[in-house]
Design goal:
The structure is a single chain. Helices cover 37% and strands 17% of the residues. It is of the alpha+beta class. It has one domain. The protein has a 5-stranded antiparallel β-sheet, with no helix packed on it. A 5-stranded mixed β-sheet has the order 9-10-12-13-11. Helix 12 packs antiparallel against helix 15. The protein is globular.
């Protein structure tokens, strides 16, 4: 009897293993750029003769029925559906925008641009390259496609809708625009890597803040530089707690689970002798994150990766969404602020406001995902007050930090100052 059970278990394991490798057989690539439709040989195309181009973000994630079961349906169709995108030459940006440097993201290829007035922008690739994140053991076992295919859980055009929702929710955003950047002289020696690709052109979270149009705000800083400013002027520097709470509750609405400290900028507002930092969220790659399938469900179990959650009508595990960033900046903010901002968001994000935010998508993309996402956002909005209370309660129970925030490892702070933002002035 025991032998029979062992045999059955072995057969099932081999069957599961076979399905796993079969699901990965659709492609062995780890990275690919967009696919242009309707143009025969891209090398011979003079893009100066066109205003726009029909392009699919990536066909790398197309799969068969086995792949959909084992690795999930995700947003495969959105990635492979062609959309009409305006063509951008850097000389058209204005302000004499020049390439400053290449970005250092692990998945996103990016170029930093700077205008003559100090305004910083960035070109963030829509297609991702997760190959640096593939562990050695996955390469040895030939399982790297599981990591690569995980990008299909990200919606290629989520950031465009999130920016519209942000405007209506009165949450700052980087104002992204979808553009196709052909090869051109202005790309200098970056042509091979960045030419003929699909990007989000958006403002940076540091540098000149004139583009924001905020009174008494003239500069933007990263989180680590905000900490340095706080250490230098402990009694003068504070954060706009209401804006931060609203921004984090907004993250819950859109299912953006990846909100570490490097994904925030801060608008520095000078009011008399005091300095107030207003949060500026960036990097919306994981908004509307949709992870399905047998293998992703195993990998993202709450016991292993509690923060990685699929965007559903209800939040699956809210404690898993509380990041060190939240503990550092928000642990002592009273419940009344969370309740106030939740109610305000519910008033601002009416059904019409939510629905109209999706008008930035093409009809083809909206037909694929629009109605389902709208229904989920509305459902989360209706329950937002409950989520806000639970979020604050979980924060209040959390332990003080003992390590520096991500990206702030080089900021010289003692153990007490690492615990919370306001600890520097206590």
């Amino acid at each position: 009897m025991v032998k029979r059970i062992v045999t059955i278990v072995v057969i099932l394991m081999l069957f599961f293993l076979g399905l796993t490798y079969w699901s990965m057989s659709s492609t062995s690539k780890t990275f690919d750029t967009c696919e242009i439709l309707g143009l025969s040989d891209i090398k011979d195309i003079d893009f100066n003769k066109y205003d726009s181009v029909l392009v699919a973000a990536s066909t790398l994630y197309e799969g068969n029925s086995i792949k959909n079961v084992m690795q999930g349906q995700q947003y495969r169709q959105a990635w492979s559906t062609p959309v009409n995108v305006p063509i951008l030459y850097l000389q058209e940006i204005g302000g004499n925008a020049k390439i400053l440097e290449e970005g250092g993201g692990k998945q996103t290829h990016s170029l930093k641009l700077q205008k003559d007035d100090g305004t910083l922008l960035t070109l963030r690739s829509v297609s991702k390259d997760p190959s640096p994140l593939v562990p050695k053991v996955a390469q040895i076992l030939g399982l790297e496609n599981i990591i690569v295919d995980g990008i299909s859980a990200q919606h290629p055009y989520a950031a465009l809708v999130v920016a519209q929702l942000s405007e209506k929710a009165k949450v700052l955003n980087t104002k992204p625009n979808l553009v196709f950047v052909p090869k051109q002289d202005e790309l200098l020696n970056y042509n091979d890597k960045y030419g003929n690709r699909l990007f989000l052109l958006e403002f940076e979270t540091k540098g000149n803040a004139n583009w924001m149009g905020l009174k008494n705000v003239d500069s933007l800083v990263d989180t680590d530089n905000l900490q340095k400013l706080k250490l230098k002027y402990p009694d003068k520097v504070g954060i706009d707690e209401n804006s931060l709470v609203r921004a984090r509750l907004f993250d819950l609405l859109i299912g953006d689970w990846d909100r570490h400290s490097k994904q925030w900028g801060w608008a520095i507002e000078n009011i008399g002798d005091s300095i107030q930092a207003i949060p500026l969220p960036c990097d919306r790659d994981n908004a509307f994150f949709n992870i399905e399938g047998v293998l992703p469900a195993i990998i993202t179990n709450n016991s292993f990766l509690p923060e990685v959650q699929s965007f559903e009508k209800e939040i699956d595990f809210l404690p898993g969404l509380i990041a060190p960033f939240d503990v550092y900046f928000m642990r002592d903010i009273p419940l009344s602020v969370f309740e106030k901002e939740a109610r305000e968001l519910q008033l601002l994000l009416t059904d019409e406001a939510i629905e109209s935010s999706f008008s930035v998508w093409s009809d083809e993309i909206f037909k694929l995902d629009g109605k389902e996402l709208i229904a989920k956002i509305k459902n989360r909005r209706n329950a937002l007050l409950d989520y806000a209370v639970l979020f604050q309660q979980e924060l209040a129970k959390s332990e003080e930090l003992t390590e520096a925030l991500k990206g702030s490892e080089d900021v010289k702070m003692n153990n007490e100052q690492k615990a919370c933002f306001n600890c520097a002035s206590e």
